[in-house]
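Contributing new records

If you add data, match the layout below exactly. Sequence lines come first and carry their own label; structure lines follow with theirs. Keep one chain per record. Anything else will be rejected by the validation script.
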Amino acid sequence: MSDLPRMFPEWLDRIQIKYLNPVIKPFGGRVPGLSVVKHRGRASGRPYETLVTAYRKDNELAVVLGHGKTDWAKNVLAAGEADVRLFRDEVHVVNPRIVPNGDGVAALPGFARRQAKKIAVFVADIA
């Protein structure tokens, strides 16, 4: 269970993971707005790929944590780095952190900044 506020109920998370993500995962990193975070499990070391909606501005990457502090975010925070496949680019991110309400996150466009007023944001620097 996430210790951060969420936009979506848990039952929707389960439906998204089981049915929606397998359908849209092939488009991750190929369609603007859909990105793939490549990370390793904290305990197992197993490689994972997770679909997210990532925003980039200059050397900053941001993801609104609408599902709370998920496993992928915990894994990247623990490792201190990850690779992210964005539209046309694959970048390495370092210095991951959680910003409680999106204030001061330059990578967030206006609509996402409004969305993130009560939701935490995952932020990392592009190496």
